Please model this.
Amino acid sequence: MSVKKAIGLIGCGDHALKNLSPALKKIKEIDLAACADVNDSALDAATELFGYKRKYNDYSTMLAEENLDGVVVSLPHYLLKDAVIESLKNQVHVFVEKPMATNMNDGIAIREAAKENGVGVMVGFCVRYSEGRIKTKTLIEEGAIGEILHVNAVKGGGDLEGLPTRWQSDPSKGGGPLLWLGSHMADQILWIVGEKPTRVHAESVWHERNGTEKKTSYSLRFASGTTATGLCSQDFSTIKGFLGNNIDSVEVFGTAGRIRSQWPSNIVEIFSELREEYRHLTTIHPRSPDNPPMYFSELYSWVRSLLENTGPPVTVEDGINMLQVVDALSESSRSGLPVLMNQD
Ligand SMILES: NC(=O)c1ccc[n+]([C@@H]2O[C@H](COP(=O)([O-])OP(=O)(O)OC[C@H]3O[C@@H](n4cnc5c(N)ncnc54)[C@H](O)[C@@H]3O)[C@@H](O)[C@H]2O)c1
Model:
């Protein structure tokens, strides 16, 4: 009988309690050994609702006292890097929520710590595990729309809850839509195109009260000639469609068709000159429109990589590539100039 992996949780806030822990609880191959948070009521909720065996106010003590195989880190953005590096130094594998760190250099520091300590880091780009995006990526890889010419991505919602007091709206704590939502978007574009951009240009409109960017529109150019555009916005609060304030779509134009995928509905629309069944614009409905399978699939893929010792399926390098784009978007939106990168 194989031994269960001992898993710890650092940060028992909204995401950890609503999405991550319900998914972790369903994974039979792990033991929810311990959790850490500075907030007692968050700790109580984690232990009572999900059965984490022991609780700590200080994650350093948890890492020192527990014999963990892996840890899930779900903290405010400005605290992610230190918690990840300390976990790695304790030889614990890490699943870290996006954006992993608040800038590319901190992402590189994480990669070096992972190498030095011989443990892995998976970054929580959960949308890769949504049914609609898996279908989209599979169809593109099968060549259904030919070669990729252009990707357009949109992600946003209304004002972040709790403005202006929560860390999400404080630029000094890694707040703002570009790291909160734009991290998913940039990853989706890079994942679909499969290249790093060589040139990035962005325009931002800034939030009047808290100084974060309220919306950013941008363009990316890749060495192959593929291009991408994006709109990352917390300024959609007047749109109350069936998706409420949660808007996330990716549209890919190819030499032989186009495909568009919405999340969280997971609806995919495709037109393809190459596939008989998609010769007319076709809507592919998901088998399951709800979100939990996405978080379960994501975390289960991490746990399987621990069990099989295969290395994380979404890597620290993926996180660094995303942070390079987000850094460049911020730089370009402030300077008004394009940013060149990955020129060699
Ligand atoms: N992938 C997704 O779908 C998704 C959705 C929401 C949030 N997230 C990510 O999850 C992470 C957490 O976001 P959230 O909305 O849950 O934030 P949150 O503020 O609700 O939770 C953060 C928790 O960290 C705790 N904390 C703060 N400092 C601490 C410390 N030094 N040690 C231990 N605990 C500490 C807080 O008490 C809080 O309980 C972020 O990286 C965010 O981007 C991902």
